[in-house]
Automatic annotation (TrEMBL):
Molecular functions per Gene Ontology: copper ion binding; cytochrome-c oxidase activity
SUPFAM superfamilies, per the entry: Cupredoxins
Keyword list, A-Z: Membrane, Transmembrane, Transmembrane helix
Protein name: Cytochrome oxidase subunit II copper A binding domain-containing protein
Highest taxon above the source species: Bacteria
Keyword tRNA-binding: no
Gene Ontology CC terms: membrane
Record-annotated Cytochrome oxidase subunit II copper A binding domain positions: 55-196
Residue ranges crossing the lipid bilayer per the database entry: 20-38
Length: 214
C-alpha cells in the first residue's frame, strides 16, 4: 500500500502554516506594544535627562565647602528660606537669613537623612572650589560648582541603609576628610527625626525682638 500523497499546493501550504504565521505576528505585535513605553522611558532617561521621567518627592539644598557638607531642609512649609554669603557664620554655615519668613521652619544638618524608596532632588552649591558628592561605588554623584546650582536626582533604596558620602573630586589638602554620613530610614523614623531637627532648630533660634511700645 503506498503512502498518501502530500498536497503541496499553495492553498494547502497556507492552511498548514497560516495559523502559525498569524500567531507569530500577534505575539511580536504584543511584545512591541508592551515593551515600547519601557524602551522609550529608558531612552529618555539616558539621552534627555532624568527630569523628564522621574518627579522627585521633594528637594534638599546641599552646600559644600572645604571640608564640610551641609544639608538644608525646607521644613514643613516646603519652601526654602533665603541664604546669603554675608550672613555666613560659625553657627550659620549656609548663611540662612533668619529674617526671612520662609526660613522660620528650616533646619540645616551635617548628616543626610532621607526616607527609603523615594526620589529626592539634591540642589548643590559650592562656596569655594569644585566638589563632588557621591558614593564610592559610583551609583550616585553630583558636582558642587561655585556659582552654579547643580541638580542631582537621588533614588533611595527600598530598605534602610547607612554609610558615608564622600567628596569624589580632589578639592584640597584635606580632601580625604570631606565626607558626610547618610541614613535612609523608614517613613516613621524619618518623621520622628524631622520633628527632632525642627525642635532643635527652634530652640537655637533667637527670640523675636520685642515690638516697640505704642
Ligand atoms: Cu571636596
Amino acid at each position: 500500500m503506498s503512502a498518501p500523497e502530500r498536497d503541496d499546493s499553495r492553498g494547502a501550504r497556507i492552511s498548514r502554516f497560516g495559523p502559525v504565521a498569524i500567531l507569530t505576528i500577534v505575539v511580536i505585535g504584543l511584545a512591541v506594544v508592551l515593551y515600547y513605553p519601557i524602551a522609550m522611558e529608558k531612552f529618555m532617561a539616558r539621552y534627555s535627562g532624568v527630569s523628564h521621567v522621574v518627579e522627585p518627592a521633594f528637594e534638599i539644598q546641599v552646600f559644600a565647602q572645604k571640608y564640610d557638607w551641609h544639608f538644608h531642609y525646607a521644613g514643613p512649609d516646603g519652601v526654602f528660606g533665603a541664604t546669603s554669603s554675608s550672613q555666613v557664620a560659625k553657627d550659620n554655615p549656609i548663611g540662612l537669613d533668619a529674617g526671612d519668613r520662609n526660613a522660620q521652619d528650616d533646619f540645616v544638618t551635617s548628616e543626610l537623612v532621607l526616607p527609603c524608596d523615594i526620589n529626592i532632588l539634591l540642589k548643590t552649591h559650592s562656596a569655594d572650589v569644585i566638589h563632588t558628592l557621591g558614593d564610592v561605588h559610583g551609583a550616585f554623584r553630583v558636582d558642587a560648582i561655585p556659582g552654579v546650582n547643580t541638580d542631582g536626582l537621588l533614588e533611595t533604596p527600598a530598605s534602610p541603609a547607612s554609610g558615608t558620602l564622600r567628596c569624589l573630586t580632589p578639592c584640597g589638602p584635606n580632601h580625604k576628610h570631606h565626607h558626610a554620613p547618610f541614613r535612609f530610614v523608614s517613613e516613621t523614623v524619618y518623621e520622628s527625626w524631622f520633628e527632632t531637627q525642627l525642635m532643635a532648630a527652634q530652640a537655637k533660634r533667637p527670640p523675636p525682638s520685642p515690638q516697640p511700645a505704642r
